[in-house]
Structures are given as structure tokens and as C-alpha cells.
Amino acid sequence: MAAPRYSAPVLWVRGTSPVLKSLFTLDSKPFCSTAAASRPLSAQQLAEKLRAQKREQKTKKQPVPTTPVQRRVQELVRFTQQLQRVHPNVLAKALSRGILHQDKDLVVINKPYGLPVHGGPGVQLCISEVLPILAKMFHGHKAEPLHLCHRLDKETTGVMVLAWEKEVAHQVQELFRTRQVEKKYWAVTVRVPVPSAGVVDIPIIEKEVQGQQQHHKMTLCPSYRMDNGKMVKVRTSRNAQIAVTQYQVLSSTVSSALVELHPVTGIKHQLRVHLSFGLDCPVLGDHKYSDWNRLAPQAFTLAFLACTLE
Questions:
Q1: pLDDT 10s digits, 259-302
Q2: Which intervals hold domain Pseudouridine synthase RsuA/RluA-like (predicted)?
Q3: In this structure, are residues 193 and 249 in contact, taking their beta carbons and an 8 Å threshold?
Q4: How confident is the model at residue 109, as a pLDDT?
Q5: Which residues does 249 contact at the CB level (< 8 Å), separation at least 6?
Q6: Is pLDDT at 162 greater than 50 in this prediction?
Q7: CA distance linking residue 295 with residue 26, whole number of Å
Q8: Peptide bond preceding 65: is omega within 30 degrees of 0, i.e. cis?
Q9: Which helix (H) or strand (E) holds 163?
């Protein structure tokens, strides 16, 4: 699930790509004016050669999944990649096939992985963009767009509630705001939470991470700290937000766990922060919160990989 380590600029400069190797080979040929020397490729010939190499790389056979779980994962990966490149009409049709509930007030869909709810920098397609199309599929061309009742992170999949009327959407949003909606999440974690069930009640605040990759992250802002073996109350920042998460381990291996999470509050990235920084068990595939100081692909220990491959 986690992406491999990558540093594209370094790899390209070193010429480890087959395409760049061929380019470096062309550039490094010594000049020769004899008739026997091969002529340099023209721009058109070079472009054809690069396209042929790309086609060859695409046609290379991928590892064949051997178990039902591997086949299902491969299907989900392929489906996610396709959704990010399709026409909005195609996305709306895919969402309509995953309707979980529908009545005169609400439509409940199954949000796919990797699909953002709102637009933004670098976002080509999102759920909010296709709500007018989805409404027309159900009620004809004169239908008013559906309305979002809440949001889910791009990497989160599961139940998402939409409303036909703006007033109904506001009512559902108020239910979420006043915590009258019970929300449960399942997450696979790296390492196993100890204890196996409990409550994480630690405020959360957004801070800027200094370093080569300056960025912002949510992090813990505890109300207490240890001082010479004694617990001392500290002054909490006014920007800190109360965050409470109930959790329970449903199943586990030596180095990973399936955890059920119940967010009592609804702070940005609350579950990811409480798991990673509160319980030292980041979500599998969560590259942002697996390390505080840098933005990099999640790294696994040999023990974790060995356990996963078994």
C-alpha cells in the first residue's frame, strides 16, 4: 500500500531511466567525421525512439496476483487510477453504481479511495464537480445539483451523505457539528496500539514544520507534561482544539493491526494524528504523518515487511 521511496530529480540526473541512458549515450559519442560513423538521430527519429521505449515499458507484464485479496487490491488500484483521468460524466456514472441509500431527502454514496471531495491546486476531478451531473441522472436535466453534507479526506473511502435540498444539507451538517452522528472508521496501522482499546484525549494544533521542506501539519498540544517524574499542567495555546478519539483493536499481527476508530470530536486529521503521534501507530500508507520532520514515503521495518509477505 505504501509507495516506494523515490527522488525523481536525483534519479533522472543520474540517468538511471532507460530513456535517459539512451540520451546520455547519444550525447557522449565522440565526434567522428568518417563515413563509417553513425549519424546522429534527427529530432523526429529521437522522438519515435522515445515513444517506442515508453510503449515497451507500458507493455511489460505486471506481477500476476495469486490470491483473492491481491486481485481485489489490484482492481481497486486500477479503478482509482482510472477515476482520476475520466470524464466527469463517467465519474458520475461510477458513483451512481455505488449508491448505498436513497430517499426523497438524501443520497448516500460509497466514496472511492483517492478521489478528493473539493477542488484545489493540482486537483483535476472531484466529487463536488460531478454533483450536478449525478442529480440529472436521477431526476432529469432540470434537476438541481445535490449538496454535500460533510467531507472525507482524499485517501478515505466509505459512506458519504448528499442531500437534494440545501436546507436538508444544513440540517445534516448541524447534526455532524453537534456530534449527533455516530461515525466509525477502520484503519490498518503500522504496529499495534497499546493498550488494545482506549481513549486518546489530547488537543490538536496546526504548526509549521521547519526544514528543507517547509509545510504545515496538525500535531499534538498536550495539556500536561512530565517534569522530574511528576505530571505538570502546562498552559495550552489558544489555537489548540479539543480532540477526543475512542479506539479498539479488532485484529492484529506481530507488526500491524486493524483498528476501529470513533472520533468524538471532528478536528482536521484527528484520527491520523492521534494514531501516529499519540499511539505511535501511523495509518498504513499515511506518508504525511509517519514522520514529523519531513514529507517522504512511509518506511517499513524488515519485520513488518516479512510479516506482510507471509
A1: 999 999 989 999 999 999 999 999 988 888 988 877 777 776 66
A2: 105-276
A3: yes
A4: 94
A5: 192, 193, 196, 197, 257, 258, 259
A6: yes
A7: 36
A8: no
A9: strand 158-163
Find residue 234's DSSP bridge partners: none
Better-predicted residue by pLDDT, 167 or 238: 167
pLDDT score, position 177? 87
CB 204 within 8 A of CB 300: no
> Span 52-68, mean pLDDT?
70
**Beta 99-102 vs 106-111: how paired, if at all?**
antiparallel
CA gap 82, 73 in Å, rounded: 14
Task: Give the residue carrying C-alpha cell 445539483.
Answer: 145
Active site residues: 153
Cα end-to-end distance, the chain, whole Å: 16
User: Quick check: 256 and 190 in contact, CB under 8 A?
Assistant: yes
CA-to-CA dists, residue 191 to 73, 87, 195, angstroms: 21, 40, 12
Q: For the range 85-94, what are the long-range contacts, defined as Cβ-Cβ under 8 Å and sequence gap of 24 or more?
A: 85/124, 86/125, 88/125, 88/129, 88/130, 88/133, 89/130, 89/133, 91/115, 91/125, 91/130, 92/130, 92/133, 92/134, 92/137, 93/137
For residue 49, the Cα-to-chain-centroid distance in whole angstroms is: 35
Higher-pLDDT residue of 60 and 98 is 98
Q: Which three cell numbers stand for residue 127?
A: 466529487
206 or 83, greater pLDDT: 206
Q: How does residue 127 score in pLDDT terms, banded at 50, 70 and 90?
A: very high
3-state class of 78 per DSSP? helix
